[in-house]
Amino acid sequence: MIGMMAAILVAASLPGRLLPFLRYHNLDKICHALAYAALAASCLFAFQPLAKKHPVLASLLVIGICLGYGFAEEAYQSLIPRRVTDSRDIMADLLGATMVVAVRQLSRCKK
User: Fold this and answer.
1) What residue segments make up the domains of the chain, in order of their start?
2) Whole-number Å distance between alpha carbons of 6 and 23
């Protein structure tokens, strides 16, 4: 979980001039969703003992962590040259995290 947070922070630290390809076809939104899907999966793994006893609480905690980190990342990006804060990035972060949590909950229901 900490490793994924660090990887997201490193990616957010890159100046915009190094990432011109992200402007095409909303590729940056796809990257945000994938990064936060990976963060949510790592959080679910980290909170596995809690998820066994309280799966809904663990799911809400994971989504809350991902959403909070998404806000913090966007605030941090505003300090990086040629990077902008975009509320649609936060929505992509939330979508990626929610999809992983939803798939996990559905797999638990099938068992």
Assistant:
1) 25-110
2) 23
